[in-house]
Task: inverse folding
DNA sequence: AAATATCCTGCAAAGAATTGCATAATTTTT
DNA sequence: AAAAATTATGCAATTCTTTGCAGGATATTT
């Protein structure tokens, strides 16, 4: 994540970087940013003031904090692990204005829902009630929850109704979590009904992105969802040029 | 859950940590916090003073206490919750083994979902993702979430998809919240799309029960959902023989 | 009432923020 | 394309905050 070397970094770029850091770690220090962005602390402070005026961060002595830090929900809130946030952040960068997106469930997906910038206008279909609720906090998104029977464990909607309803939609990009990812076996999962829904989701999407923390690479579950060739993107917390990734990069865009 | 290792902890972070501890244990000791947060007790005391000035905690000799037991506002909140629990409990008593039930959204409905006894085996349809998630914690229930577009405010699914899907189901009993209840005007609500969904829910149900805290009696909203004659039950926190209820008891079973 | 623990006040050092100003970069106008 | 206007950046001097500590005051316990 070397934003340096680029001698001219525009103010807006720095702002974007700062926001990203805050989303990732919930806080930033002026001193750190000064080093990372190679500008004086004065400039950083001015940046932080700008962002605070825009209401995007909470400026405090020494740096700034995520706004959600102060929200009433904060108290019981358990923040996602940084690696999940990283995955979520990378995923969001694939979404562009006006897109129609379909998402599965899981904590990484919930984290993604939280991190979507306020300016983005898009349509989100989801099979997860939890993701739907999180997305519904967003000011500009249209959120459509696919109905169906609730799975006890995965907290997503399943069953024939969900599958047939998915046949009626056509989306630009589908984000899917995965329990198993393997070079030969592709994407695998352990629950029959969940697999059916994931398959239907993939059929409805022009492009599919798998989001997963790197721990799940090289693991295989009982049932196959799809092979790697069905995928467009593989998003994990790894660096795209990580050696663990090279074999995969022949089949999918690794991010 | 140690916040250390992070060499610089900002003041606001400490405050957040302290609040979290107080919510967890109802009290904190300055000496403990000094160790946990790796700052001098003086700093802790200053933090506690800050938080006390902001009215968030109650500072006492040796540390601080949760304020929640002393604030009249909190008491009201708890009281309001109690009356909702009462309504929810009465509603549950209408559900019998094997029934197929349909529910709307709202805090009372969520409360009901929590209180359903573990032994009950039944099928629940709901238009509320929140209620669905709560119901899915139950060991024996089958939960089906009706899909649709998420309403920003009411947190229920709305739109034509929801309405047409509701046409396909037939349930024994439908539980509905209400914003307005009035002898002449019947059940009323303020949002067009919400009203459409509620009407569809009523059409799908053999019997309809309105759940509402008594404050909402004698209030009228802009749009009509149905008249009292369409209802089977009216459930509130009032006693069935309360004088406020007598007029209603000619049209519906008051509980 | 003596011993102990906790609190408060003022102080000094370190770090952070602000201000004004000079300089450089960028955009707009000519 | 040059000139002018605007905006962004870094620096130095000043001011403000935060923090830990010392010593005295105030509680709390025994």
Result:
């Amino acid at each position: 994540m070397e934003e340096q070397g680029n001698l001219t970094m525009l103010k807006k770029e720095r702002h974007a970087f700062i926001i990203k850091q805050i989303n990732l770690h919930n806080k930033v220090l002026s001193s750190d940013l000064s080093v990372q962005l190679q500008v004086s602390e004065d400039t950083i402070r001015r940046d932080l003031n700008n962002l605070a005026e825009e209401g995007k961060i909470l400026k405090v002595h020494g740096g700034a904090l995520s706004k959600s830090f102060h929200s009433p929900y904060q108290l019981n809130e358990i923040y996602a692990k940084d690696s999940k946030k990283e995955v979520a952040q990378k995923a969001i960068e694939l979404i562009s204005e006006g897109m129609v997106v379909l998402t599965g469930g899981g904590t990484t997906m919930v984290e993604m829902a939280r991190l979507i910038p306020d300016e983005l206008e898009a349509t989100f279909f989801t099979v997860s009630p939890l993701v739907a609720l999180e997305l519904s906090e967003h000011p500009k998104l249209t959120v459509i929850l696919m109905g169906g029977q609730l799975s006890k464990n995965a907290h997503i909607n399943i069953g024939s109704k969900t599958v047939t309803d998915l046949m009626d939609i056509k989306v630009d990009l589908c984000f899917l979590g995965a329990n198993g990812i393997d070079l030969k076996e592709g994407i695998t999962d352990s629950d029959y009904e969940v697999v059916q829904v994931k398959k239907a989701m993939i059929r409805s999407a022009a492009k599919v992105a798998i989001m997963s923390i790197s721990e799940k690479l090289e693991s295989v579950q009982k049932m196959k969802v799809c092979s790697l060739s069905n995928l467009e993107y593989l998003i994990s917390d790894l660096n795209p040029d990580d050696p663990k990734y090279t074999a995969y990069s022949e089949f999918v865009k690794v991010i």
Remarks:
- Residues 30-31, 41-42, 45, 61-62 of chain B lie near DNA strand C (CB under 10 Å from a C1').
- Confidence is low (pLDDT under 50) at residues 1-5, 70-78 of chain B.
